[in-house]
Design brief:
Elements lengths: L25 E6 L10 E5 L4 E5 L6 E5 L6 E7 L5 E6 L2 E11 L2 E8 L18 E6 L4 E6 L7 E7 L13 E6 L5 H16 L7
Antiparallel strand pairs: 1-2, 1-12, 2-3, 3-4, 4-5, 5-6, 6-7, 7-8, 8-9, 9-10, 10-11, 11-12
């Protein structure tokens, strides 16, 4: 089963210079526990080995999404301010809030994409309805992202352990693949996957 195109294009981290909406399905190779790394930057590539982003490894409560061509910081993922909450910023604009909730003894991540004018860092705001929800077996790195605007909750991105045999890259036991549908902000999907990784790397229960 492969992800489907979202009901409407979902974008969150674009600015005047760059957008991250892919025009075709994309597979990204990720590494588990990136939030815990302390060995410089990690390059995220597609299955053909093309560099997409870098993730820094220098901070604890923040992760930076760096552009591959010049290493400039495009987005930051920050824990808090509340427990089980993460914010994603472009410069000082809060673009996305991710909340971790428990529904029926299962963890669910709700991805709220904010609209313009974007609230500034530290400013209060009312969250819109979630654009995406994330469910699955997080400990086993087998989870889906669902389009909340679709009454049928279509699946628009998928994380699975390992690297496809067709990939030009070699993975290891910490590698996993993100498959992202056309029309979905791939930078947003990568940031949400890092949030999930951060939540479960600390030793949470199997799916709670």
């Amino acid at each position: 089963e492969h992800p489907s195109v979202p009901l409407r294009r979902i974008t969150a981290l674009q600015d005047s210079r760059v957008h991250f909406i892919n025009d075709a399905p994309m597979m990204c190779i990720m590494r588990q526990r990136l939030w815990e790394q302390r060995d410089g930057t990690h390059v995220i590539r597609d299955i053909n080995g093309i560099s997409l982003f870098q993730i820094d490894g220098l901070l604890t409560a923040t992760r930076q999404l760096l552009l591959p061509n010049n290493g400039g910081c495009h987005a930051k993922i920050e824990r808090g301010p509340a427990e089980d909450e993460w914010s994603i910023y472009v410069q000082d604009e809060r673009r996305v809030t991710v909340l971790r909730r428990v529904v029926g003894n299962q963890a669910v991540f709700l991805v709220h994409v904010l609209s313009e004018p974007f609230p500034q860092r530290g400013s209060p705001s009312t969250l819109p309805l979630p654009a995406l929800s994330v469910r699955g077996n997080f400990k086993e790195l087998d989870f889906w992202m669902y389009d909340c605007s679709d009454p049928n909750n279509r699946k628009v991105a998928h994380a699975s352990r390992g690297v496809p045999s067709t990939a030009s890259l070699q993975g290891d036991k910490s590698s996993y693949t993100l498959e992202v549908a056309e029309g979905l902000d791939v930078a947003l999907v990568i940031c949400v996957a890092l949030v999930v990784d951060d939540s479960f790397a600390a030793g949470a229960g199997a799916n709670v």
